[in-house]
Design brief:
Largest sheet: none
Number of helices: 10
Distance between the termini: 45 Å
Length: 233
């Protein structure tokens, strides 16, 4: 049976790695190598050694390691977007849709998907620590024109539409949507590495405190205080 595929912008790759055994191996081992080495020390040469192939074979799939990072980050955001859509199907209350979306943003790294060549727990660590490098580059404007950030934008748009359902006159739906996503990752990173910059303590195997914080900020902004569970704040 052909593996489930996440649909991404074709300009992120030269050949779709999800369609071949070698390509899926590049993704799987690439995630592990970036997590182990850090993006700065990660190279296609080291990855080729890890998969028992040649550097040239990796370059047939990806132009460079920056595009590879963009691919992985985009894959993660698109996976979350698809899971949010699946989770909120049949849910009528917009506030509940927002709560489920926030829950998905915080829990996605701990969910098992049908895609066995991606370890989402490890990929989540990469997104937390390395994703900013995919966007903060000199090529950001050109890459934006090429649509390389489309998956992240689609996720933000999905959540912003839910926010508009809750409060059609809210003036900053995209800002709030993007902030919720970024706050999640930033505060996980701070809790693990710069604890004086956050009030959160991340428990091993649990991101529940992150979810509570995101709900607090989002629901307060949208005047949904009455829906906050005060006992859990």
């Amino acid at each position: 049976m052909k593996p489930v595929a996440i649909k991404l912008n074709e300009k992120l790759f030269l050949r779709d790695p999800q369609e071949t055994k070698l390509g899926r191996k590049i993704i799987s081992h690439g995630i592990e190598e970036i997590d182990h080495l850090g993006f700065e020390k990660f190279t296609f040469k080291k990855l080729s050694t890890a998969i028992g192939s040649t550097e040239a074979s990796i370059y047939r799939y990806f132009e460079n390691k920056h595009k590879f990072l963009l691919y992985l980050v985009s894959w993660y955001w698109e996976s979350i977007r698809c899971q949010i859509i699946d989770r909120i199907q049949g849910v009528d209350a917009p506030a509940q849709k927002l709560r489920l979306s926030i829950q998905m943003i915080t829990e996605a790294s701990q969910l098992n998907t049908e895609i066995d060549f991606v370890n989402e727990q490890i990929l989540h660590r990469i997104v937390v620590s390395e994703a900013i490098k995919a966007y903060h580059s000199k090529e950001v404007d050109a890459e934006n024109r090429e649509g390389l950030f489309a998956n992240y934008k689609s996720l933000v748009r999905l959540i912003s539409e839910i926010i508009r359902e809750i409060e059609p006159q809210f003036p900053y739906p995209h800002t709030l949507a993007a902030s919720v996503i970024e706050m999640a990752n930033e505060n996980i990173y701070y809790a693990e590495h710069l604890p004086s910059l956050t009030d959160l303590k991340i428990k091993v195997g649990s991101l529940h405190d992150i979810q509570k914080m995101l709900e607090f900020f989002a629901f307060k902004m949208l005047n949904l205080d009455h829906l906050l569970d005060e006992k859990n704040l």
